[in-house]
Amino acid sequence: MNFASYVDIQARERPDELAVTDPQREMSYAELRAETDAVANGLAALGVEPGDHVALFLPNLTTFVTSYYGAMKLGAIPVPINLRFGEAEIAHVLRDVAPSALVVLDRFVDAFADRDLGVELVAVGDEDIEGTTDYGQLVADAEKSFHTAERLDSQVAEILYTSGTTGDPKGVQHTHGNLAANARGGARHMHMTSDTVYLTIAPCFHATGLNGTTTPSVVTGAENHLLPEWDPEMALRTMESRGITYTVLIPTMVLDLLEHGPGGYDIEPLETLVVGGSPMPKERIEQVEAALDCTLYEGGGMTETTPLAVINSPEQAVRKPGSVGTVAGAVARLRIEDPDTGEAVEPGERGELLWHGDTVMKGYHDLPTKNEAVFVEREGREWLRSGDIGHRDADGHVFLDDRLDDMIITGGENVYPREIEDVIYELDEAQEAAIVGTPHERLGEQVTAVVRGDVTEAEVQDVCRGSLADYKIPREVHVREEALPQTATMKIDKVSLRAELG
């Protein structure tokens, strides 16, 4: 089934109920259906055909949602582009998917106007820009009724790009079946219903914002409130005014909320805060739950799993510190194996996480060699190699220890940075911490810490010395006042740190 059909289903069942808002606009499900139908008709009039790519260069606005579902209704494939990408990365995405149309916020049009793209530019905003089609006029002129194109569950529904920290960004192909499984599985595990009130702050060009809240909200028939940029005060104000019950954030946003504090805002309705993207130390989780008076659930996954794969959920009797939960059994299966031999490891042993199930991507767009490398057959099933190192305890709780690429080999010993970072976060003044391997003449690599906060090198080494083996204690500690560099998906950029310190 075409995933965009959920818009039509909810418009029939709850036409007057609130579907989506941004700070300037709100839309009912009936209005969402009418505008997505108009977008589909408008794109078709511009020459977009089923199977074509429609690029979206938009922040979290209602027009992102209408453009996304409008393209999908036509049978085209929406391709959100990361607004944090640089010129070279944007050029790579445009070459890679060769879109038939590009929907772009008016203030970003200049970034594309001088390119010989050969695509239709649709500008969103109040400005009348020469050489573009005005989004508002496109919608106004189009019919408000469209028969949603039929699509198989196995056909590509969207393409999301990875952050490209180790090369060009890769286009992850999610099918209509992936989106449905992810949304329904998330609703089942996290008890989402039509009464859930979502807040979407994580960008919709990222799996966390798009498939953590935005696509599930349409499946459950709930409200989804979008914020176009990260502002802790605006987030708290929206939580209060809209009665937000559920949101998904990344760790840096959670830390900002913690620093800002809830102040005088009434956010009592907030029940569930899901954190994905990278692990959070248990001390921070406890601080956030106390400050915001909600339950914080860590989840694990990746763009390649749409992203639902493993999660802590309300139905769990026990949440174990440091665990991202248990496998989302409704949609995924997990295998942990030795990355060198491919042999399965025992509970408690570290290995690479491999995923199989309904949320696993179809593959990377136009990268057959890469697909051959990441998809492997084990015991008659196809599994996706994640590149994550972790372990599962005897009770089935999964722990993400690190990225395979981030592991440090120092003097022949394997060191996993997250273990050290968690210890550093025991220092109250440590706001951000990153452990990277840097060259060492005798050891090959040495453990190096980069910390933001009011701490000293001695304090960092002392707290590590109290908990860790000697070879894990950072030989160098760099303390900074400024925030650590981030990738385009707002994770700490260890590649740039290694390059800087190497």
From TrEMBL:
Query: InterPro entries per the record?
Result: AMP-bd_C, AMP-bd_C_sf, AMP-binding_CS, AMP-dep_synth/lig_dom, ANL_N_sf, ATP-dep_AMP-bd_enzyme
Q: Which Pfam families match?
A: AMP-binding, AMP-binding_C
Cite the AMP-binding enzyme C-terminal domain residue spans from the record.
Answer: 419-491
Q: Which GO terms describe its molecular function?
A: acid-thiol ligase activity
User: Where does the UniProt annotation place the signal sequence?
Assistant: none
Under PROSITE patterns, the record lists:
AMP_BINDING
> Which parts of the sequence belong to the AMP-dependent synthetase/ligase domain?
9-365
This protein's name: AMP-dependent synthetase
Q: Which organism is it from?
A: Haloglomus irregulare
